[in-house]
Design goal:
CATH architecture of one domain: 3-Layer(bba) Sandwich
Largest sheet: 8 strands, mixed
Radius of gyration: 21 Å
Helix content: 25-40%
Oligomer: single chain
């Protein structure tokens, strides 16, 4: 298998043009992390008249924001209504789930208002289910979620599956109508252009070290110099421990960085894409090891993503594994070449819930649990309102405890075992 260790999304977009500047001596707000959260937070703060400097340890778009599957949706909670009700009570559970629908509504308005060109389409999402027991469970969960404002779903019988996907793997399925797709790196590029035009200072390939509270604000030390910031935002998500040099223990001890891997096939005939994805929806299944797939925005390739087998970013090994998963869904792609294989880090939390707030004077919005496109843009608005002290900045996540585990230090040593176990259970279930 000969393929490029490169994100497909980066292969068809121009490199970002970011002016080279010095680190200022003083700034209103310093943002650590240049993904969607950092970029969108900067946008709101700049429009409110704040001066902003944004630091990223890599190039913008080299993290999860520029390399994800390009899928958007309400990001409903893994525990579902029943699990959340047991944990927090019914009304709080409803509020948490409703927040996901609020986020996708805001996201659609944001893309339209900002006139962002990122191949965004609300296509809906098809979730294939491999057996009747699992289908009954998903249907029950979906019925319970009908209590949420704006939630819509549609059951598909076995006889209807071919109208949604050119695969014989699934016994039945569900279509969710609040989902869509986009080009993630184009979203990064558009947000970057906007904040540069508003006067943001961006420093790529810059490691942030100590952040020290002083009478004048926070002294933010980097490998390229230091500055004084009135406020600091931590928006580093899945890369928090990797690049913080153990300087942000409160955050990385509460985040579980997981490898999310993707592949893109070679260009395929249009009739093949039309057969595999008749309605050009986003797609997923009922696998314990999360899998997601779609046609590329130009309808020329199949894009497929899943959890990496361990915590390392190994595109060659991941590409081979993902090709096997892809061919189980679409056997006709067995002899199709893979052109691109890439991976990145997402961040989970121990309660499967994103968190935003303020800790030791530092603002943060992190822990999107693999569903960060809409959540991050929405949370950035709410966080910026909190920083500015203007507007309704409430979210249902505000008063949730941000828990850690006593044995955990930010490196998910236990994940390979969990991944192997889930993979074993998937094989038993025929997934």
């Amino acid at each position: 298998m000969q393929f490029k260790n490169l994100s497909y999304w980066h292969s068809n977009t121009e490199p970002l043009s970011i002016p080279l500047t010095y680190i200022p001596k003083k700034i209103d707000v310093a943002i650590v992390g240049g993904g969607y959260t950092g970029l969108a937070t900067a946008l709101h703060l700049l429009r409110a008249g704040k001066s902003v400097v944004l630091f990223d340890a890599m190039k913008l778009g080299d993290g999860a924001s520029g390399k994800n599957g390009g899928m958007v949706g309400p990001s409903l909670h893994k525990l579902g209504l029943e699990g959340l009700t047991r944990a927090y009570g019914k009304q709080k559970a409803i509020n948490i789930l409703q927040e996901g629908l609020n986020a996708i509504k805001y996201f659609q308005d944001f893309i339209k208002l900002e006139k962002i060109e990122c191949d965004f389409k609300m296509t809906g999402r098809f979730r294939g289910i491999t057996n009747q027991v699992a289908l009954d469970s998903v249907l029950r969960d979906s019925e319970r979620l009908s209590i949420l404002k704006g939630f819509k779903f549609e059951e598909l019988k076995n006889s209807d599956i071919q109208s949604e996907i050119g695969s014989n793997l699934y016994h039945g399925g569900i279509v969710y109508h609040q989902d869509g797709g986009l080009h993630p790196q184009k979203l990064v590029a558009s947000l970057t252009e906007k904040i540069i035009s508003l006067g943001a200072t961006i420093h790529q390939n810059t490691l942030v070290g100590d952040i020290i509270k002083t009478p004048a604000g926070f002294q933010v030390q980097t490998n390229k110099g230091s500055l004084i910031a009135g406020d600091v935002v931590i928006a580093s998500n899945g890369y928090t421990k990797k690049f913080s040099n153990k300087k942000l223990p409160y955050f990385y001890k509460r985040l579980i960085p997981l490898t999310s891997a993707m592949i893109a096939t070679e260009k395929l005939p249009r009739e093949t894409i039309d057969r595999l994805f008749p309605k050009k929806r986003m797609h997923g299944g009922n696998h314990r090891l999360v899998q997601y797939y779609r046609a590329s925005p130009d309808n020329k390739r199949v894009l497929f993503g899943a959890r990496g087998p361990d915590t390392r970013d190994r595109s060659l090994q991941n590409g081979k594994i993902l090709k096997k998963h892809l061919c189980k869904i679409f056997p006709e792609l067995k002899n199709v070449n893979i052109d691109y294989s890439w991976c990145g880090k997402v961040a989970y939390t121990f309660d499967h819930t994103p968190h935003l707030g303020k800790q030791d004077g530092l603002y943060y919005a992190i822990g999107y649990c693999g569903s960060g496109v809409t959540r991050s843009i929405y949370m950035a608005r709410q966080l910026s309102r909190r920083i500015l002290g203007k507007g309704n900045h409430y979210t249902a996540f505000d008063d949730l405890p941000f828990r850690k585990k006593f044995f955990y230090s930010g490196t998910p040593w236990f994940m390979p075992t969990i991944i192997k176990w889930h993979s074993f259970l998937d094989r038993i279930d025929g997934n």
